[in-house]
Amino acid sequence: MKLKSLTINGFKSFADKTEIDFQPGITGIVGPNGSGKSNIIESLRWVLGEQSAKSLRGSKMPDVIFAGSATRAPLNRAEVEIEFDNSDRFLPDQPDELRITRRIYRSGESEFLLNGKKVRLKDIVNLFMDTGLGKESFSVISQGRVESIFNSKPEDRRVLIEETAGVLKYKKEKERAEKELKETTDHLDRVVDILTELKRQREPLEEQASIAKDYVEQKKQFDYYHLNELVLEIQQGRKQKAELDQQLKQAKELLAKYKQAALDQEEHTTQLHEQQQTIENQLDQVQTQLVTLTQQRERLAGKKDISEQQRQFQIEKIESLTKQIDENQHDRATLQEKLATVQKRIDELKREKQNLQHQIKSLSVDQNLAPAELERAIAKLTDQINQQTQQKMQAENEIHVLEQSETQRQSELAQVQKQLATAQAETKPLQDQLTAAKAQTAECQANLEGAEHQAEAYREKRTKLNAQIDQQRQNWYQASEIMQKAQARLEALESVAHNYSGYYQGVREVLKQRNHLQGIVGSVAETINVDQQYSQAIETTLGSQLQNIIVKDENAAKAGIRFLTQKRLGRATFLPQTTMRARSIDSRLLQQARNDSGMIGIASDLVTFDASNRNVIQYLLGTTLIVKDIDAATRIARAVNHRVKLVTLKGEVVNPGGSMTGGANRTQRNGLLQKKQESTVLKDQLKMMQTKLGELEEHGKQLKRQLADVITKDQQNATQVNELHQQLTAMQKNLAAIQQQFDEQHRHQEQLHRQLQDLDGTKAAVRQAELKKQVESLTASIAELQTELDDKKRFSEDARSTQRESSAKLNEFKQQLLLVNERLTNAQLQANEYQTQINQLNRALDQGKQSLERIQSQQSLNDMHGDELAKKQAEIEKQHAEYTAKVKQMRAQRDELHDQVADAESRLRRANELQQASNDDQRKASLQLGRLTSKLEQHLQELTETYEMTFEKAAQEAQETDLNEVQRHLKLLKRGIDELGEVNLGAIDEFERVNERFEFLNTQQNDLNNAKETLVQSMDEMDNEVKTRFKETFDQVATAFASLFPQIFGGGKAYLTLTASDDLLHTGIEITAQPPGKKAQRLSLLSGGERSLTAITLLFALLKVRPVPFAVLDEAEAALDDANVARYSQYLKNFDDETQFIVITHRKGTMMQADVLYGVTMQESGVSKMVSVSLADVI
Q: What's a single GO MF annotation on this record (predicted)?
């Protein structure tokens, strides 16, 4: 078979329809990188059935459609068609011309055509299977395929030998056979599961059907006697009803009489109760008011004490302030007298100064009568001298005054400093006393606050303890009630367990006789223990098997059966310990189940039991798994192919075979295990409650002791609070007195500090220094002027002689004026000092008077408040006495009414007792009559509903007359029916249906087993065929490889080996090569070029053993150097007679061996085109 042509249309970069004709020999395809050469090979693989978009360098299959370019729009489909010449019947069942077409659309739809007819992908794959021409066969060889040979594992290389050997179809057949075997096995497992389930259903159904037939017969006889019983009881009931009607009439008359008497007494008692309640309410109101008055009285007493303490403090404060004010007023009067004397002296000095200034002025006018020019010069000099002399005298006088004032200031400063030192010395003890008093007061206040806080804590603790005692008492009552209920329930359960209630009659009778029957161990329910969380699941798993009786051996079981048979007491199932065999779950299924998080465990592992019963319990529970919920059950059931019984914690069941059981009844009934579990829980609960009651009683005693201790401590603390209140009051009073003394002393010090500031000599010293400088300057100036004056005077002695007398007098007056000015200045300074001290005393007096007025105002208010408190206290005392007397009177009235109420209640109880007794008689008669009437109605209704008869018709059909004999027969029949237990009337039909299906599935199981054996045999035959072909082909390929290697390499040697020669179905292939001049080593240890050439040699060996019609080589020689490329291309010529080669290459050595050469180019961006190529141009 030859490859004739390949037509590409819209596949990847081949946007236009492109047809490539292939000739015998070697066809070369060349072109630059990215031109689309490899797309030709991919189109060939795609049309031969490639399914992986990734291997075609895409993410999804529609990616092979031309995606468009800058100048072309995308296409909506891709199509590749390949044509073969099959005239040599390489494919025997196909015609001479063979065309395969594959299309794909943007929507993802695709189709295959074989000679124009639609076929499946599977048909194309099967067509080329084992021909060496498949999509992954060694006929399509790329550089990546070459690399995969030396990079892959030895196990992966066996695919090349398998394809060469043509065993892929056997492997496919084996895969199909394995799938069929799995399906057959699964089907067989399901049939086995269903058969197991049907067998489990069939056995009890057979027994139920037998019981149901027995039940129908006994029920017929029971209905006959029951009809007679109903007739006889109705006849007796009608007679009893007439008697009860008469008794009820008499009881009603007597009840009416007692009822009226009780009503009268109740009315009287109610009136007394209302009076009692009225007086109680009034007494509560009066007592509440009395408590309020007591509290008000105590608060007023406290306020009065505080008011008295404030009053005493205010009196002492007023006395202190009054004394201070008097002292300040006396000091001020003394200073005012001194100031008046000084002021009088100042006025006298001012008058004397004015007189002297007048005389000087007169004399100065006379001096002006001298000769004009000389006199003016002398006068000017004299004035200057006089002026400067006067300034000097004033400065000297001021210096003198300052020196005198400094002496006085130093004296006063020393006195003030002495007073200040004395005051400071007196302040230190006061400061210490004040600090100590404050500390003591703060400590006392803290102690008081602590004691009051402790009192509050004691009150809270008393309240809390009282609440705890009440809660503890309530808890004790609740616990006691719970224990009583639990005790009653436990007694009921123990009574049920002792009488074996809930067991079938046969089981119950055997268990009652266990002391007389040898070898009875007990029921299954008695011998196992289970946690409460698993009880419902285990009870559901066992069901009626909980009533099976475990015995020591077969003899004990036989003895039990004989006992039941002889006494006709029913049936029971016995489980001998010696004959029972444990059952378990297949380990593989168990492991699969345990892989699910919802798996809890095997049912037998979740119960506890005696070791002697292990086989019995394993038999009953060893094949059942307990799971969390129904979802987990369905998951695990699927995992184990529905071959295991699964039960959830809520009791839902997934049976082997897949059926599911679940739901809930309208009323909840406890089974045997749950009752046993409840008894165990109740016993534990009783022990716990007894312990808790003891703990509660002890805790109550502790709380009462704590309360008594808290009350004692609270009383002691109350005494301490009163003592601390008294201490605090005394300390506060003492602190106020010390604070007052300290404040007065502090104010005195402040006054002394201000005097020190006033006596500060810094300014006076500065002024004195300035004045001395001024005196020195004036003295020098006066001396100069005096010299000049003397010169002038020598020239005018004559003129001056006449004026000498007046001039001397003028100087005298001026000297007197200077002296007066000095005295006036001193007097003014002294007056200013007195005025400053008076002003300070005035301020002190104003502050003292303000403080005195404020305290006096507070004293007036406090006196008024004290009077009001006294009035209120007297009024409260009066009201307190009145309410005390009123309480005493009302208590006497209450006690009297209490005695009257007690007597009335006693009479009322007697009347009620008589009424109740009569009422009980009436109710008893009414109940009897009601029950009898109801019974008659039920009997009549039962006749109508059950037997569809009236009483008259039933009386005609009834033949029995002795009710006791009828009831005896009914009792025997009922016992027989009860012994049958729960009867399933549908079991007869259900058994026939299940049995028929069981027989059918049993036949089907045999057929499936036969089919399974046939498949296994067929698979063994195919494995043998694969092994034979694989070994033969491997030997041929190994021989060819060893022969070709030295030819291609120009020397050396190589060989193939099997990694596991004893396992031909799975063995890998190891390649060992020894290039010329090197040692033998594995393929992975060779250089890159050597590995590639070795892999190509192996491919040539495959072609030699199994020639194929054509082979595609996509740059297979890319890793070879030029010399090896030459050997490679030359060797292609050795095969081109039998094999048609399509070679994609960049190497000149390969191109030179090509018979036909095609070029691929992209003249238009993104679009590949085929062009003819000149071999000379390329080479």
A: ATP binding
Residue type, 305: D
Q: CA 133 to CA 63: how far, in whole Å?
A: 25
Phi-psi region of 842 (alpha: psi -120 to 50; beta: other; left: phi over 0): alpha
The predicted pLDDT at position 1176 comes to 47
Tokens 């600090």 belong to: 435
> Domain total for the chain?
2
| Per-residue pLDDT at 635 exceeds 50 | yes
| Measured CA distances, 196 to 184, 192, 603 (Å) | 18, 6, 19
Output the CA torsion sign for 848, 853, 856, 858: negative
CA dihedral for 912, 915, 916, 917, sign (positive or negative)? positive
Both tokens of residue 164?
């060469």
How many angstroms separate the CA atoms of 608 and 530, rounded?
6
pLDDT > 50? residue 820: yes
**Residue pLDDT, tens place only, 311-350:** 676 677 677 778 877 887 788 888 788 888 878 888 887 7
Cα–Cα separations (whole angstroms), residue 1036 to 422, 1081, 1101, 1105 = 138, 22, 9, 7
- The separation between CA 218 and the C-alpha centre of its own chain, rounded to angstroms, equals 65
Beta carbons within 10 angstroms of residue 1120's beta carbon: 23
* Domain residue limits at 658: 504-680
- Residues annotated within the binding site for ATP are 32-39
Burial tier of 550 (Cβ tally within 10 Å: 0-12, 13-18, 19+): buried
User: Could you report the per-residue pLDDT of 461-491, keeping only the tens digit for each?
Assistant: 878 887 887 787 777 767 776 776 777 677 7
Is residue 571 assigned to a domain? yes
Beta-sheet pairing, 520-523 with 549-551: antiparallel
Q: Could you say which of 664, 680, 696 is where a domain stops?
A: 680
CATH number at residue 515: 3.30.70.1620
In a domain, 811, yes or no: no
Which residue, of 680, 710, 736, is where some domain finishes? Answer: 680
Half-sphere exposure of 781 (CA within 13 A, CB side): 18
Token duo for residue 1084? 């992975």
Spatial neighbors of 935 by CB under 8 A, at least 6 apart, are: 233, 237
Q: Is residue 190, in this structure, part of any structural domain at all?
A: no
CA dihedral 993, 999, 1004, 1005 (to 10 degrees): 120
Neighbouring-strand partners of residue 1158: 29, 1172
As given in the structure block, the two tokens for residue 880 are: 């307190």
Give the span between the Cα atoms of 736 and 437, in whole angstroms: 9
- CA angle (323 as vertex; 321, 325 as ends), nearest 5: 70
Query: For residues 1169 and 18, is the Cβ–Cβ distance under 8 A?
Result: yes
Q: Which residues are annotated as a binding site?
A: 32-39
CA 458-463-464 angle, 5° bins: 95
Which CATH number do you get for residue 61?
A: 3.40.50.300
**According to the 3-state scheme, what is the secondary structure of 16-72?**
CCEEEECCCCEEEEECCCCCCHHHHHHHHHHHCCCCCCHHHCCCCHHHHECCCCCCC
**What is the number of helices (H) and of strands (E) in the chain?**
24, 25
Is the pLDDT at 667 greater than 50? The verdict is no
CA–CA separation, 716 vs 710, rounded Å? 10
Q: What are phi and psi of 801, to 5 degrees?
A: -60, -35
How far is CA 509 from each of CA 513, 563, 978, rounded to the nearest angstrom?
6, 9, 13
3-class secondary-structure state, position 104: strand
307 inside domain:
no
The pTM (predicted TM-score) of the whole model is 0.37
Using an 8 Å Cβ cutoff, are 250 and 892 in contact? no
